[in-house]
Amino acid sequence: MRTPDLSLRPRLAGRPVLLVVLTAMAWLPAPAVAAAASRPNVLFIAADDLRVDLGCYGSPEALTPNLDALARRGVLFERAYCQQAVCNPSRASILTGRRPDTLRVWDLRRHFRETFPQLVTLPQHFKAHGYTTVGLGKLFHNQSGAKPPFPFNDPPSWSEPPAFSDGPHWADWVEEDGGAPKGKGGAVQRLDVPDEAYLDGRIAGAAVRRLGELARDGNPFFLGVGFWKPHLPFNAPRRYWDLYDRARIRPPAAASMPKGAPALAGHTWNELRGYGGMPKNGPLSTEQIAELRHGYLACVSFLDAQVGKVLRELARLGLEGNTLVVFWSDHGFHLGEHDLWGKTANYELDTRVPLIFAGPGVAAGGRALGLAELLDVYPTLVEASALPAAAGTEGRSLLAQLRDPAAPGKRLAVSQHPRPSYGNQPTHMGYTLRSAEHRYVEWRELAAGAIVARELYDHRSDPAETVNRIDDPALAAVVRAFATEAARIIANGGARPSPRP
User: Is 141 a catalytic residue?
Assistant: First the structure.
């Protein structure tokens, strides 16, 4: 059996591509106004906890006409993956173009500027080259109360103070007595209220207004619009719930952990259990499962409607032809599959994300099958906007796939997650390598670096990842190739979490 080629080195037409490392650039000078005026605008739209439950990704349930329309006029990446399936590390990674181990960011509390205070983020790079950069909503992590000099919404990235960027998700709640939330409420809410009753409705309105102002200004812009849905709590106006018949919503497929999976692979879904009405331990009832899956779909359609408002205004203003649009989610989400709720695992449902590009130079209606990573977005937007390359980014531009979706992607996408997931100092790190046909996971004890468990899933026969085939003799060559590649990746870039200062 031929050992599969799992090299991360890009290839073109069968020939290796020389990788050039740029080292001279840290802070970037502003360009001449004339050069900036001809560059495309960027509309950078983020979702939170959105897995590939979209009509354009083949979901049989989700109603997402606006994102489906965006995919029809651009390129949809079928196999895009985040670098860690939790908010802060994933967002730090895409917005800096660096992996969690490089940034030393693995949890919800550490800011990347603690390690790299002079690092140039994606919007900051555009700002340094003459763009007006505006941040609305959740783009970086939403940790409230972060103290200077490192607020989580990262003021150096923006031309003006970011808005709608801070606070806990549970506070996005409608109190029927008109008061402010006094604490974390239930996991779902279904009220007959306008879109603006919730944060994403207000963010969409602000984005529409700001687009008009940016159009009148005439300067090239980078507008980041970060929606908070479909993150818990699953609260959306009633009309979005009413789009779905609960009796027709399917229960979770593969509702137990994969056969042969190590204990480290799972978690106790503490995020969901922290909401009112959810059991503090043990399983959910059949009714609770149905309600949560219904609420998630309602929030997906609510999100889609807000994206549609922004995209329609972009078109109405005549900006569509000169604006690069990218839509992405920070990670996926389990809705009872594998007996998991939430993110923070290394499986396909956690790590695979929607990624759609549209705009000038992007093939219409393309579907890119090659592997991609979220940290590739930074170099892609920079190259597509004809800006100088940024120093130190670890992603690879996807521009070739935007022009020709059949162009080859990466050989591997790499994600990771620590255990424990929240709170305490991690003792183990799980690294997962996704190829076109397999997922390999390696769990390492951090103090000594010893491998304590491994997983292998064959997506050719088991796309739901139900059986760990790490000990299957028929896949021994595949396992050896992955193990060799994982050892190289971890030795070259893996870092062990250190105690917090």
Answer: yes
Average pLDDT score over the chain: 90
Tell me the pairing of strands 41-47 and 352-353. Answer: unpaired
pTM comes to 0.91
325: which 2 tokens?
């649009």
* Paired tokens of 196: 């603006």
Of these residues, 87, 125, 331, 428, which one is catalytic?
A: 87
Q: Which residues pair with 134 in a beta bridge?
A: 223
CB 165 within 8 A of CB 140: yes
* Choice among 11-15, 123-127, 327-331 with the minimum mean pLDDT: 11-15
* Backbone φ, ψ for residue 146 (5° rounding): -65, 135
Tokens of 295: 């609420």
Catalytic position from the list 111, 125, 129, 141: 141
Q: Which residues, in sequence order, are CB contacts of 143 under 8 Å at separation 6+?
A: 88, 108, 109, 152, 166
Q: What φ, ψ does residue 440 adopt, rounded to 5°?
A: -115, 135
CA distances from 427 to 350, 420, 422, 443 (A): 21, 7, 12, 10
Q: What is the DSSP letter of 9?
A: S
Pairing of strands 80-81, 352-353: antiparallel
CB contact at 8 A, 362 and 326: no
In angstroms, the CA 364 to CA 370 distance is 17
For residues 179 and 194, what is the distance between their CA atoms, to the nearest angstrom?
Answer: 17
Q: How far from 206 is each of 106, 152, 287, CA to CA, in Å?
A: 32, 21, 37
Domains and CATH numbers, the chain: 30-410 (3.40.720.10)
